Amino acid sequence: MKKSKTLGKVFVSLILLVVLFSVVGFSAAKSKSFKVGASPVPHAEILEFVKDDFEQKTGVKLDIIIFTDYVQPNLALADGSIDANYFQHEPYLLTFVKERKIEGLVCAAKIHVEPMGFYLKKDLKDLKKGDIIIIPNDVTNEGRALLLLEQHGLIKLREREDPLVATVKDIVENPYNLTFKELEAPYLPRTYKTDKNVVGAVINTNYAMEADLNPLKDAVFFEGAESPYANIIAVREERLNDELVKALIEVLTTDKVRNFILEKYNGAVVPVF
Known about the structure:
Structural class: alpha/beta
Strand content: 15-25%
Order of helices and strands: HEHEHEHEEEHEEEHEHHEEHHE
Number of strands: 13
CATH topology of the largest domain: D-Maltodextrin-Binding Protein, domain 2
Mean pLDDT: 89
Largest sheet: 6 strands, mixed
Number of helices: 10
Low-confidence stretches: 2-29
Radius of gyration: 24 Å
Distance between the termini: 70 Å
CATH class of the largest domain: Alpha Beta
């Protein structure tokens, strides 16, 4: 009988320990941060604007991880170092995962468009043979830049099944005899501003704004708000229905955020929700 009571006490103690560890584990999980990789401008600024709303809504810290390139944020998302990222458009994501043979990265929501702009140090009419124009070297943004130049008559591209992945090799007409050089997107603004041999550049708006270039004021021409290149929240596919992912999207797609984007960026960034 005494042995039975002892066993009973041990069993009760074990149950209490399981409950205790469950509570502690739940509290620890609740205290973890939700990590989002982002470009400094405008993505991180927009995330900072909703940070308090997210944390009040979920009780979880929003940890904004800054990236200054277009490769590491997706690699970090794929290996689980971050929970989501916010820096790219969907065509870039689709091309990236295909080229890198990465599975399971998907778009969770579309947030805004950053119209790509063409910046020039002289008038269009003064362009001459050999003038150097720099463009992004990643597949989708290079195609996007060339399509923008084609729309405004600077070049003509050969017809291809997917014009979004056009390269300089697809240029069939070049009436100004321009010379095109491809650079990593983050280096475009600095090179445009400091290299005397560079006459023009097609620059992604997030990098342009970091260099105090505004497509509405400084670009010769730029994409319209109807651009299909909406910047997205990307996550791993298994987390599409995650409550924290849903909460992030909810706080990012409010009238409050729409007004913030329109007022802060004066049309250089356009909300799509």
